[in-house]
Design goal:
Blueprint lengths: L11 E7 L10 E7 L2 E10 L2 E6 L24 E2 L6 E2 L6 E3 L8 E2 L1 E4 L2 E6 L3 E2 L4
Antiparallel strand pairs: 1-10, 2-3, 2-11, 3-4, 4-8, 5-6, 6-7, 9-10
Bound molecules: FE2/S2 (inorganic) cluster (FES).
FE2/S2 (inorganic) cluster binds next to loops.
Amino acid sequence: MLDSSAQAGEGAWVALCNSADLVDAGTAVSFDVRYQGLACRAFAVRYQGQAHAYLNRCSHVAMEMDWQPDRFFDPTGRWLVCATHGAVYEPNTGECRGGPCRRGLIALAVQEFGGVVHWRSQYPFQILEY
Ligand code: FES
């Protein structure tokens, strides 16, 4: 994890990981956020070259989705899958594509600059202070 303290205000871009840490359809980088006032887990993945980040919360039942720590892609690398009942999500958008999901994943804004992936700290997403 990179030091984000210099950019840690409301509406700031928060450093998450080096761009090289996100491999296409590979292992995610998980992180903590405050969402609507609650501490939540989130994750970032890369798909078709683009970084994306979502709350780690299935829309079927509000549970974390990874089948092993930081593993969200199915074996083909095409879909994000919830380990509990198999809901299937589009990696580019978080839209529900199959299984028992009721709607899409909750996306965080992501940008890459300077070789670093950043997420946007702006309501309803805020930095989780410990
Ligand atoms: S909790 Fe994710 S599919 Fe049921």
